[in-house]
Amino acid sequence: MDRRKFLRSGAIAATGATLAAPAIAQASPSVTWRLASSYPKSLDTLFASSEEMAKAVYELTDGQFEIQVFAGGELVPPLGIADSVGDGTVEMGHTGSYFYMGKDPAFAFGTAMPWSGNARQYQAWMHEGGGNDLINEVLTNFNLINMPAGNTGTQMAGWYRKEINSLEDLKGLKMRIGGLGGTVMSRMGVIPQQIAGADMYPALERGVLDAIEFVGPADDEKLGFYKVAKFYYAPAFWEPSGELSYFINADAHAALPKHFQAALKHASRSSGAQLLHRYDTRNAAALQRLLAEGVQVRTMPEEILRESYRQTHMLYAEMSDQSASFKKIHDHMFDFMDKARTFTNISDFAFDYVGYQAQQGNWPKS
Amino acid sequence: MDRRKFLRSGAIAATGATLAAPAIAQASPSVTWRLASSYPKSLDTLFASSEEMAKAVYELTDGQFEIQVFAGGELVPPLGIADSVGDGTVEMGHTGSYFYMGKDPAFAFGTAMPWSGNARQYQAWMHEGGGNDLINEVLTNFNLINMPAGNTGTQMAGWYRKEINSLEDLKGLKMRIGGLGGTVMSRMGVIPQQIAGADMYPALERGVLDAIEFVGPADDEKLGFYKVAKFYYAPAFWEPSGELSYFINADAHAALPKHFQAALKHASRSSGAQLLHRYDTRNAAALQRLLAEGVQVRTMPEEILRESYRQTHMLYAEMSDQSASFKKIHDHMFDFMDKARTFTNISDFAFDYVGYQAQQGNWPKS
Lengths: 366, 366
Prior knowledge:
The structure is a homodimer of 366-residue chains. Chain A has helices at residues 3-19, 44-60, 81-86, 119-127, 131-139, 179-186, 197-206, 217-223, 250-254, 258-292, 302-322, 324-346, 348-360, and strands spanning 31-37, 65-70, 92-95, 144-151, 158-160, 174-176, 191-193, 211-212, 231-234, 243-249, 296-299. Chain A has two domains: 31-150 and 241-281, 3-Layer(aba) Sandwich (D-Maltodextrin-Binding Protein, domain 2); 155-238 and 295-323, 3-Layer(aba) Sandwich (D-Maltodextrin-Binding Protein, domain 2).
């Protein structure tokens, strides 16, 4: 990447909130924060969500509380958000909590857990079921507060150069996948690779990689994977939902007036809800275009799903043995998900199922 | 109902926002609005959501904008919200948009449409797909602005004294059901009845009604239907999602300072998102209790679903012939839903499906 060009575009991002201010705004805000993102501006659905949160805070406080948004790498390393926010280098970050599970495995619960729940179930657990409170009990040790920042929905299991028909087909498969999903896949024979954004496409094109998992149709389409890998698999059992995080420095938060704290809370929830609506809308449209390009959608074979389910739960048992905080949150989450799934089966899933029958079966409309 | 007791509890609701104010709040707010609800306080999940919205607005504006919340019937008739808000009797209402489809069929789209989409798909259409803008083009004729207020999720098809095994079993069935769902059911032989809240349970108990549809496990459990009707059917094809509405007087909204408008917008979105999380959490817990009481959950037979699908689309064709605004919004919504469903099938539905297989099939965890 051209570093100067990157810095210029970053500078525009940093002043975006100011440009969007109403003409009657105060001459200078009483509080100015800096938000460091893990994400580049090119991931526009994700990145714009943090700008919209900042804009909402600015509007809600009549220009008195300004959050300046900086793209990934501009101020601090993209995967160094937890440290940079915790030590006060920046007051706030936009990131994926699970990047930091090396500090404490409890960080994983802030984003996605293999074989947990869909976005509705996950967000219910976080916001109403007590999940985020449990996460924040751990994050307080790092001087951090986690505010959920919206969800991608169930992600895709990625792009594969060849069809995957059995567990045998995973043996030796070089795949770009990280986190707990990468650990589970490695126990099924996959060779997980960590490859940064710009290098993914050429690696898949040249066969350095056999497969790549990223997000879903809207983000994946931009990176062009469909041009070099024909098979698009569903679903990502490792990310049945993917929540983003705002990390906030706990001292900086405590120093805010109450109505600025309220602005942060409600702007995060509002822009977070909008993020999922936007992903749902853009993913649906992008999928239409990908199908028109001849992309072959496949579902992971049951043999692989069953083995991944077994490996996932064995991994959870190991991690629970090693970490009391992991076990506490894990047990709470999965108890919640079991009950949530029983209800979903007779509500949204039941309707989705018959809606699918009607659509696929062309049920008569007259 | 004891009217004095009702008024007393209403008075507490009206001052609830004041009691929750921070100690340092201003002596008197600069703007005070009254919100009239269609709902009684006893529907606590729904009703509390409007109180939480008002509390958020109060906190966001540091006590400068107070919205006083009044329960259904206290200020204006529960189903008279559109008129009362439009003519400025109150500045704001909390209601179901579809109650007012007699004014214009476009009001129906603000709540639920038979055989449309689940809550994720519906909210994506409303907030990101342009749906709410289309609805507000019509509501402006009534001096109203619609702000989506959160969703119940896919509702249940209700409580039945006898099993429903075929279309024949619907003939002459006396059922409490209204709106477009009632029209579709009447074309399949059901005799729809409109029965008010407190009268529903005794009517079902005495056999004046054979069936009742209401909301979902959490709300239904409170009304005790499971004690007198054993069979609980899924899903409500007529309410695959149920969105609540805030109606706002357009003149009153235009007169607000911009940051008060921002407070209304983000407080509605934030408390609306929370409403769905709360329904999901409470419905899952209530279902566990209902199952323990011996409730028999059933899925509507395919014969009935197919016929309801046909009748629904024939009704839409008739309504589109009669109303250009209905046709415009209908075509926009169902085009969106077709694409959304195609994507859901390979994302959340695909995961829900395998999650269900794993749970029901007790896939090995070690």
